[in-house]
Amino acid sequence: MRLSIDPPLDPGAYPFAHPVRVRFAETDAMGVVHHAAYLPYLEEARVAYLRAIGHPYPEVRAEGVDLTVLEVATRYLQPLRFDDLVHVHLLVGKVTRATFQIAYLLTVEGEARATAVTVHGSIDASGRPTRLPAWVHDLAPA
Amino acid sequence: MRLSIDPPLDPGAYPFAHPVRVRFAETDAMGVVHHAAYLPYLEEARVAYLRAIGHPYPEVRAEGVDLTVLEVATRYLQPLRFDDLVHVHLLVGKVTRATFQIAYLLTVEGEARATAVTVHGSIDASGRPTRLPAWVHDLAPA
Amino acid sequence: MRLSIDPPLDPGAYPFAHPVRVRFAETDAMGVVHHAAYLPYLEEARVAYLRAIGHPYPEVRAEGVDLTVLEVATRYLQPLRFDDLVHVHLLVGKVTRATFQIAYLLTVEGEARATAVTVHGSIDASGRPTRLPAWVHDLAPA
Amino acid sequence: MRLSIDPPLDPGAYPFAHPVRVRFAETDAMGVVHHAAYLPYLEEARVAYLRAIGHPYPEVRAEGVDLTVLEVATRYLQPLRFDDLVHVHLLVGKVTRATFQIAYLLTVEGEARATAVTVHGSIDASGRPTRLPAWVHDLAPA
Fold it and tell me: How much is the pTM?
């Protein structure tokens, strides 16, 4: 796989955090949040991050580009529970000509619950892989 | 609301049934299937029904028509549990020029677990309400 | 069905509103929010309402009571789209000894998009129907 | 991460396959299956596999053991679309005293669409990590 970031466990290492309140619909019969429900949390945090840096995703899409998910890896450390207020911390990692990676740390009251990495590419309106928008390159770590 | 059918509790009253196996992801922290997870069951049964009567939904869409959901009503009688094999029975009820209704009965081992009614309309590729495909009228009860 | 409220279309008729931002994961191939995704919005608003009136749902559950969903009815008026900021307005309607009803209006920038009604009962830890918590009766309209 | 298997792209390398029909509810506004919706497909295939080898998951749970998901990694190769009939191929990889891994290949008409790996542990009824059921060790590759 292309995944190359190891998400830090220190919230201070992340420049951005987005709060998500756990819905009851996201729990399962083990009494905790189902593992698939974490992926929309990551996505919601990405969208909030893009809005925060001046590139709201609806505008990105209106310009004819969709940012696709090429890979996801999630590591579940401690369960999330109904009504938990989860902070999804994120940082942009490696950016190449065609892909970029984001690392995530999910915390509840400062305690690590999960880490994740997503790898993204971009496609045009016809679904073909296309160059990343120029501003994505500015997000790369120095 | 437009809903006008009272779904019968007798499986024999329905001309079509579609089996769905409950996924773990669909349960919640009460240990039963979350109430929102029933709606995709109804949808899956509708799609299977359209396929069975010779109108696979991808073909319907390819002809430029989307069947939209205007209303849904669900009544939860007894919980569904992980791994239950649910039979979703359905029958087409009232068909008007612009809408049609479907009634559903969900059973496990012949026992009623839920009933539902959906009301549908159709839109064209631009999202505007359009006439129902002609074959929908043939589905109306005699 | 037991449903007896007709949700008003005027946001001013509702004592409580809760904002929900539409996730991309909640859209479908018609480009709008999938009809099943509205139910978790209603649930999130109910939970926020209970917190606001001093009965956080985790505390309700800790006291051995679960509020179950007996019926749901939703009417879709205008589509919701990705990234819309939806206000879920709610009001408690009829309260009986064993059930209570909630009416909802979903708006985006003040414009009605959907209405809904849910009917609830309560069960104890063993899953048996039980009396509603006393405070629920105080929520009934005068 | 603990992930150590690289899922083969040849369906013939997998001893088990489970068919899943894509639901409309699982698509998103890009017109393809949302990346989070793949995880319940993997889970459904695991459950079908356990049933096929004589260890239905409800029985596993009744014996007081839950198999938890410690890690998931998914690689999206080609999109899945509404109504696709997806075959989820799986094989059990490395088994240690406390964890085991499963590799997956998703195909449509024999064509690879995605690969994935999940890492699992087991917990007892109180949520504490516990030894894997003995039969899991028999699933390890020779």
Answer: 0.96
